[in-house]
Design brief:
Blueprint: H1 3-7, H2 30-37, E1 49-57, H3 62-76, E2 88-92, E3 97-102, E4 106-114, H4 131-135, E5 140-151, H5 157-161, E6 172-176, E7 181-185, E8 194-200, H6 205-226, H7 228-251, H8 259-304, E9 307-308, H9 315-322, H10 324-406, H11 416-450
Parallel strand pairs: 5-8
Antiparallel strand pairs: 1-4, 1-5, 2-3, 3-4, 6-7, 6-9, 7-8
Length: 451
């Protein structure tokens, strides 16, 4: 350490330093973003403890009623109203404690109660919670778990492992936290609750709290992930029908004889595309959420740091054998759905191209017919022009004849007949030249108008 550093006084030894933060322009979200990292910490637990966990899916605006419901509990227990704006709160009622958290799709209620010496094995943390209040919790129950935290001296793991699951199911057992705890469960619902036995072999209160939180999150996230499985089975049936129909349409593509057949097939293909895209829009979130929840399950299992016990499947093995196939099915259906949507789009484009080519061919034929008709009309027009020259010459020569008869005394020695005969070619030439000039004028104006 340098001389200056060694001689520097401790902060506050002489005078308080000025508020350094007042010198900076801080981002308005800086504090809230930093607090988010520290939000929702696990509740420290002193062994022995009963823990009951309930998760309720948000339905029909239930999330908006949760704050009032928690306030009603606080009022019933003569406690201060809880602060729920941050999406989580903690209520200490003495006889029990409640940790509430709101998530995207569900809200969780975790109840804690100390185990007394006279508590029986079948008791749980909900016994001291007002029954009417817990009956009216908003939402639909999706996960319910009882956890019993016991000391290794009170419940030796060997005595648990020699027993079969009391409900006759496969017992899942493992050491966790590098041997500081033992976990036992069968992942079945009995009387509405799944059950875990957590044996404390050296956990600190915070470790015990984190262990309980990981177990309830594994239980919740695995159920939330499985919400996509019924959807996958339903979508699978739709995809099978759509794939068969698409195959039939493509087989019939070669049998199409005319544009009407192509348009009919294109209509069926468009309807099929609409059905598949509607399914994609309806299920994309659910399949994506299932993958996200499954990743969370795997992450929480990693955090348990399990050690396998001979003769017993671990939580990881149970999830890989029971949960992973369902999630893989959902992922396969989601990919199959996207592939089918792409295939329909490509086939639709192919059929549209075929229809467009046929329409272009028909348009070319129509233009050719129009050209032929235009030529015929031109010939007719030329014929009419010739007849017009004759007709105009005839009428004009008659006028000359009348005029010559009226002035026959002035045209001597010519007679009216001679004058009329001389005027006929002159009149015919003038009429023909006039019509030709008019046609040229109209032909010169037409390109300018078209441009």
């Amino acid at each position: 350490m340098g001389k200056n550093a060694a001689s520097r006084p401790l902060r506050g030894a002489i005078r308080p330093e000025p508020d350094l933060m007042s010198l900076f322009n801080q981002h308005p979200l800086r504090q809230s973003l930093n607090d988010e990292v520290h939000a929702r910490p696990p509740v420290p637990l002193d062994t022995p403890e009963f823990v009951t966990y309930l998760a309720f899916v948000h339905t029909d605006g239930s999330a908006g009623r949760e704050a009032g419901h928690l306030a009603a509990l606080a009022e019933q227990l003569d406690l201060a109203p809880p602060q729920t704006e941050t999406g989580h709160t903690f209520i200490d009622a003495g006889a029990f404690r409640l940790k509430w958290e709101r998530h995207n799709e569900f809200s969780s209620y975790t109840f804690f109660r100390r185990i007394e010496a006279d508590d029986g094995a079948d008791e749980h943390a909900l016994l001291t919670v007002p029954a009417t209040w817990r009956k009216n919790i908003p939402g639909q129950l999706i996960a319910a778990t009882h956890i019993e935290l016991r000391a290794v001296a009170d419940v030796p793991p060997d005595t648990v492992m020699v027993q079969v699951s009391p409900h006759g199911e496969t017992l899942v057992a493992a050491q966790a936290a590098e041997g500081a705890a033992w976990v036992f469960t069968d992942f079945h619902i009995h009387e509405g609750f799944s059950r875990f036995l957590l044996v404390d072999a050296g956990l600190t209160p915070r470790q015990a709290g984190r262990m309980v939180q990981r177990l309830v999150e594994i239980e919740t996230y695995r159920v939330m992930a499985l919400l996509a499985f019924p959807v996958a089975k339903e979508v699978g049936r739709l995809l099978s029908r759509a794939e068969d129909e698409l195959a039939d349409l493509m087989d019939g593509l070669e049998l199409a004889r005319n544009t009407e057949d192509d348009r009919a097939m294109l209509g069926r293909l468009t309807r099929l595309a609409a059905d598949v895209e509607r399914s994609v829009a309806r299920t994309t979130f659910r399949f994506g959420a299932a993958a996200a929840y499954y990743r969370l399950v795997q992450q929480r299992i990693d955090e348990l740091r399990e050690v396998r016990l001979s003769g017993f499947p671990t939580i990881r093995e149970f999830m890989e054998r029971r949960l992973a196939p369902a999630i893989n099915t959902c992922a396969t259906i989601a990919q199959r759905q996207e592939d089918l949507s792409g295939r329909i789009a490509r086939n639709s484009q192919l059929l549209r191209t075929r229809v467009d080519i046929e329409l272009e061919r028909q348009n070319q034929e129509l233009l050719a017919q129009m050209n032929r008709r235009a030529k015929i009309q031109l010939h007719l027009q030329e014929t009419v022009e010739g007849l017009s020259v004759v007709a105009i010459t005839y009428y004009a020569s008659q006028l000359v004849n009348y005029m010559a008869k009226g002035g026959k005394d002035f045209i001597l020695p010519f007679t009216p007949e001679i004058v009329t005969a001389i005027s006929i070619p002159v009149i015919a030439l003038l009429v023909a030249l006039s019509l030709r000039k008019m046609r040229k004028t109209l032909g010169a104006d037409e390109p300018a108008a078209t441009h």
